Amino acid sequence: MRTSRSTDMPVYETALGQGITRTPEFQRKGLASFAANVGTKCGHGCLYCSTGSMLRMHSSFAEVSRNPFDDGYAIVDPNSVERIAYDAAHKTKRGMVQLCTTVDAWSPEAQRYGLGRNCLEAILRQPGWIVRILTKNAAVSADFDVIERYRDRVLLGLSITATPDRGDVTAILEPYASTIDDRMAAMKEAHRRGLRTYGMLCPLLPGIADSPQQIDELVRSLVNCGVEEIFAEGVNPRGNGLIKTQEALEAEGYHDEAEAIREIRNRQGHSRYVVRLLDNVQQSVRKHTNVQQLRFLLYPSSLTPNDAARIQNDGAGVIWLA
Question: Best-predicted range by mean pLDDT among 15-19, 220-224, 234-238?
Answer without folding.
Answer: 220-224
